């Protein structure tokens, strides 16, 4: 297989780019002059949003399917021959008690949230090496602090944090940095599907900034970690969470107001 000449502009690959945090990250990369390869398994939505964003290339791929990820890497090799930034953002959420989490549900969550990140990063390695690129994996505060209902989701996200550290340890000698962003709650379709009114109210109480984050606020951290401004930062997890993770006892009744 022959590779095409290197792209003139840096290339970012964002998984789960058809909506939510992935879409906002795509828009920010575009503002910074990147060509953005938008990856998602939702083909109609991916086509719709990508067609309205010049500088993007949609590639349909289910990152939990090894054969599809191999094909994605092959296509990227032919088109660009390099990846400057890989954002492993695609994720699924399922909130239910441990006793009700059947094996199929567990596997479904792990397949995208953990296996997908492993597969995509591994398949992109030659392309990342070519650019001495950066990986940013999207975990969650659910991977930093345990809570009810998140036995599969929280465990998958905790594993992503460690996977990031493994990547940083092994890939540094190739000039590849790997970092992790752990968002707090953000109003996306994913959160709307699993956050009840009670969960929303509880988050507002428990978060020092007293609100959900925006997709753009998460994207800013992701794009910073991919940029040369973060050129000596690797193996780190940054919680973009309004202060949730750092606050051990944040009882609303003990606030000074
Ligand atoms: N929204 C939040 O409150 C929140 C909080 C913490 C972490 N996160 C994490 O941020 C990331 C993005 O979340 P979001 O809220 O923007 O979600 P979202 O549901 O709005 O968007 C996720 C996108 O990923 C795609 N996707 C899912 N599984 C895929 C797969 N196997 N292959 C390819 N594409 C796939 C979906 O089609 C969708 O377009 C996820 O990893 C999520 O766990 C979100």
TrEMBL record:
<protein>
    <submittedName>
        <fullName>3-oxoacyl-ACP reductase</fullName>
    </submittedName>
</protein>
<dbReference type="InterPro" id="IPR057326">
    <property type="entry name" value="KR_dom"/>
</dbReference>
<feature type="domain" description="Ketoreductase">
    <location>
        <begin position="10"/>
        <end position="189"/>
    </location>
</feature>
<dbReference type="Pfam" id="PF13561">
    <property type="entry name" value="adh_short_C2"/>
</dbReference>
<dbReference type="GO" id="GO:0030497">
    <property type="term" value="P:fatty acid elongation"/>
</dbReference>
<dbReference type="InterPro" id="IPR036291">
    <property type="entry name" value="NAD(P)-bd_dom_sf"/>
</dbReference>
<dbReference type="GO" id="GO:0016616">
    <property type="term" value="F:oxidoreductase activity, acting on the CH-OH group of donors, NAD or NADP as acceptor"/>
</dbReference>
<dbReference type="InterPro" id="IPR002347">
    <property type="entry name" value="SDR_fam"/>
</dbReference>
<comment type="similarity">
    <text>Belongs to the short-chain dehydrogenases/reductases (SDR) family.</text>
</comment>
<dbReference type="InterPro" id="IPR020904">
    <property type="entry name" value="Sc_DH/Rdtase_CS"/>
</dbReference>
């Amino acid at each position: 297989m022959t590779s095409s000449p290197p792209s003139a502009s840096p290339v970012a690959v964002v998984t789960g780019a058809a909506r939510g945090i992935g879409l906002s990250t795509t828009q920010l990369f575009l503002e910074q002059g990147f060509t953005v390869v938008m990856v998602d398994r939702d083909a109609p939505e991916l086509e719709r949003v990508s067609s309205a964003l010049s500088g993007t290339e949609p590639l349909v791929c289910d990152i939990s399917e090894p054969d599809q990820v191999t094909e994605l890497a092959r296509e990227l090799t032919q088109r660009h021959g390099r990846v400057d930034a890989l954002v492993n953002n695609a994720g699924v959420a399922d909130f239910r008690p441990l006793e009700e989490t059947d094996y199929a549900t567990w596997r479904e969550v792990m397949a995208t949230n953990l296996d997908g990140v492993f597969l995509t990063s591994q398949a992109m390695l030659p392309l990342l090496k070519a650019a001495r690129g950066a990986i940013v994996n999207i975990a969650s505060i659910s991977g930093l602090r345990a809570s009810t209902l998140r036995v599969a989701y929280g465990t998958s996200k905790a594993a992503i944090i460690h996977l990031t550290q493994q990547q940083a340890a092994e890939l540094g000698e190739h000039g590849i940095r790997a970092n992790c962003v752990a968002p707090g709650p953000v109003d996306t379709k994913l959160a709307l599907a699993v956050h009840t009114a009670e969960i929303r109210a509880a988050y507002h109480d428990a978060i020092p900034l007293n609100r959900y984050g925006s997709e753009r606020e998460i994207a800013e951290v992701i794009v910073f970690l991919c940029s040369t401004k973060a050129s000596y930062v690797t193996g780190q997890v940054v919680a973009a969470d309004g202060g949730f993770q750092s606050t051990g006892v944040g009882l609303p009744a003990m606030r000074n107001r």
